[in-house]
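Entry 12.
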Amino acid sequence: MRSLAIMRAVLIRQTARGAFPSEVAGIEDGTCFVTASVALCLDPAAHRPALERALDFIETCEDPRHPGAFAFYPPRGNGPMLVRGLPPDADDTALAWLALLHGGRRGTDQARAAFEARITPAACLLVPGGAPPWVRRGAVRTWLIERGRDNPVDLAVNANVLALACRLGLAAHPVAQGAAASLAAAAAGGFDPAGFGRRLAPYYADVTELWFAVRRAAALDDGTLAPMLVPVLAWLAPLLGSRALALDKPLYCNDHGRPVWRAPVLQRTRRLGPAPRLPHASACAFKQTPALSNKGDQHDVLFLCGA
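Predicted 3D structure (tokens):
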């Protein structure tokens, strides 16, 4: 009953445009990232009206100049936005397609075509000399429109792209292999994720978000990439604790760390939403810490949505 009450509170936060809000610099905005992340936690049967409205908003984030590519904010939107004119990016594109597939709004063939047309061209054909040591050929840059030095390889972005590839049966695709190899190299290289978080995922304000992204990919993997992803999750696991699901946890930022977005609605959904309908849904769980436990709660596992 408590979970149902919290889910109702989450759904109440959905805006008239269909977005689920985040907070940044004193404003409340609606982004593709948060809305798609929450949508992936909604049960298509139990929460169909809210899911449809969320998908409506996500589709407004598609770049009309580059069909199949999605941006952080709706390119033609007039709602609150901290930054206007952002180009489409691999992160929002991957999450948008995952949500659209989850809700049955678009089909697999469409998603595969978009993957090839919009995400694949962002892959590194050659690893730049100044790239972090874990970057491998095939990993994608963040922005789908080249921005020179302002277009880093972010491992959380790559994990979300990998999740989409797995969902589409493209685990053997060079982009998927490059993303997985980069994640595996970071885990095997002895890099402290807490200390290197800003370099591992420059567009994320808390390195535990990398765990969420990798877990999403692992949940969608058919087992092909497990030898690479299981060590990555083990490498990141020591970071997990009550702060991973704290309502005020910083979520994402720009590549120099400011400003910071937070999304209590997403954090609530992660804590109490239904488990996602993924091939390995039971793998989307980790032991609940005392800070998150409720007195008298008999459940010692907290299911985390694919968000």
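Annotation: The first helix runs from residue 2 to 12. The radius of gyration is 18 Å.
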